[in-house]
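Quick check before the chapter quiz. The format below is the same one you will see on the exam, so make sure you can read both the input and the output lines.
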Amino acid sequence: MTEKQKRFQELADRSNAKGYATYSDFLGLAEISDFFAVRFSVSTNLWGGYENAERCVACFGDREYFADKSDYPIKCILIKPVNQKFADTLSHRDFLGSLMGLGIRREVLGDIIISENKGYLFCLETIADYIVENLTQVKHTTVKCELTDNIPTDVLPQPEKHEIIVSSERLDVIVSTIYKMSRSQVLPIFHTEKVFVNGVVKTSPSTTLNVGDKVSVRGFGRFIYKGVLRRTKKERLVISVDVF
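Here is the expected output.
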């Protein structure tokens, strides 16, 4: 058991013994894979502040704790230039770099969504006030931070529906088709453990996808497999995927 898995087990044991929900820090893809590898004595759930978030907090406890997402120790901060007219064009890397420059650990930060040169940052509530008070500049741009509960729905990542033709439902076939890679390009991605299905790392290219599987390919993106729509005259499969 890894150190991270031991920490998960400690949180589960504490919830079981004390009778209240416990929460992890934000987990990345590899940590979520570690999380799914452990069998816990209590129910668990993942939430990142919005549906289909990539970085998530794990909750340990009875299922009643999962319904009210406001119980999760997650806050959203709107980070926006004081003067958009003279602002730099700000990227995810710019926002994250400025936060790291404040000495903030990556584990307390969730996803950062960029829209119209503004950043919506999900973070643990323990660090939220510190960020609001101390993050005053991103790149060369003076910014203002404020806590918000009103996140425009059109800001949140929305998948694009695609129909693609593949030879099978094998994971490597679908990944290479979506991201336009050759077989020689896609295999190293599996060998370096960059492919995750429903939060679990997959090293076997021959893994077969099931309807509803959520696939993340580190460095490329995410998609949800929606299943086979029909067959072509040459018996190839026309499948549906929602690509983020």
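If your answer matched, good. The chain has seven helices and 14 strands.
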